[in-house]
Design a protein that fits this description.
Elements lengths: L16 H9 L2 E3 L2 H23 L5 H19 L2 E4 L3 E5 L3 E6 L3 E5 L3 E6 L2 E9 L35 H16 L10 E5 L1 H20 L1
Antiparallel strand pairs: 1-2, 2-3, 3-4, 4-8, 5-6, 6-7
């Protein structure tokens, strides 16, 4: 993974900072509606078990910790994953890691089981954008042969919150990459980073530790 040395420092004002802030404000977060529905149902079911367990004496800490762990897992692997598309690139928010890619570093777009992007020889999968098995999958590299088109005749689909599919998002990503290549100013930096999400990691470790202590120690 590499950082462009000319990438602006978030803590320091630069001449291009207002434009970049505006680009971030125009970002769109894509998450399937089904993940919200599953998360809501799972959360409601978890609270239905958790509240009586907390109010009933003696408390079953094994049950309480197990429900808390399941709720954390549902949030991490179902609700939390998403994709954020902005003017300069895309952010893949996965259960434990966050990937930031700008358009110039993406060389391949695929959608076998989920949205997959290849940047600087590394493949990144977007957990929050599953593929639709009823659609032809997106494939092949952008630097060789054009990727398979999934758009309708003369039109392109824009992903909505209730219909977020890898093939549709892949089509938008390729269109944005093509538009970025036509820019004459060359302002888009080359950025490809993958970092651990400290909140997600800490939440998972805390839930697992609570379950282990409640089950085997308490």
């Amino acid at each position: 993974m590499s950082h462009d040395p000319q990438q602006p420092n978030p803590g320091r004002s630069t001449p291009g900072q207002p434009e970049q802030d505006a680009d971030r404000r125009e970002a769109r977060t894509l998450r399937p509606g089904s993940s919200i529905a599953v998360g809501a149902i799972g959360g409601l079911a978890g609270l239905t078990l958790l509240v009586p367990a907390l109010l009933t004496e003696p408390r079953s800490w094994t049950l309480i910790s197990a429900v808390v762990l399941v709720l954390v897992l549902v949030w991490l692997f179902v609700v939390h994953p998403c994709v954020v598309i902005h003017a300069e690139g895309i952010r893949l928010v996965n259960p434990m890691r966050t990937v930031d890619l700008t358009w110039p570093v993406i060389t391949e777009i695929r959608s076998r089981w989920a949205l997959e992007l290849v940047a600087e020889g590394t493949r990144h999968t977007a957990w929050g954008v599953p593929a639709d098995p009823g659609r032809p999958r997106y494939g092949r590299g952008l630097l060789t042969v054009g990727a398979n088109q999934v758009r309708g005749r003369g039109t392109s689909e824009t992903p909505t919150k209730s219909k977020v599919q890898a093939q549709v998002v892949a089509a938008e990503v390729e269109a944005r990459i093509a538009a970025d290549r036509k820019r004459k100013d060359g302002r888009t930096p080359r950025v490809a980073t993958r970092v651990w999400d400290p909140v997600s990691v800490g939440l998972l470790l805390a839930a697992v530790a609570f379950f282990v202590i409640a089950t085997f120690v308490a």
